[in-house]
Specification:
The protein is mostly helical. It is built from eight helices and no strands. The chain has helices at about 1-15, 20-40, 45-60, 60-80, 85-100, 105-120, 130-140, 145-170.
Amino acid sequence: VEVAKALVNLGDAHGDLGDLAQQKEMLERAFRIQENYYGPDHREVLSSLMGLSVVYGRLGDIPRKRDLLERSLRIFEHAFGPEHQNVAVTLAALAEVGGDLGDVAQRRVYLERSLKIMELGYGQGHRNVTVLLQELAQTYGELGDVECRDRLLARVRQIEEAAKLAASATA
């Protein structure tokens, strides 16, 4: 199992150097070790699964990236609960994949779920939710729902203005 951790770190280093083939090989080896030791749905396989999803995305294999993210999502939800921040991050990554595959409706579903979790964790007026609000606004625009897009963008502006006021009050 320690070998798997080392392989994940080594894979990440290869990725940082731009060697995606080596990164993929290291992460696949780590995943096989983790899966054999812990089982296919244990949270310890997440480091290699999430890393592999990034590698496949960088290699342009978006359907494989989607499959790995969907598997990771199931594990995150089971291990940490459906409202955990890692679930929100994985949903946002799946939304990006939906957009890459041209499935704007699915992108909307994932973004809405991710936004709900982020709002639960940070609050509806927190700056960290603005990125998701902007992406969701763009998605609604692509779906032709201009009213919803504009409402979401107004929320973004409201949050940003409140953050500026708070920052100037403490300065």
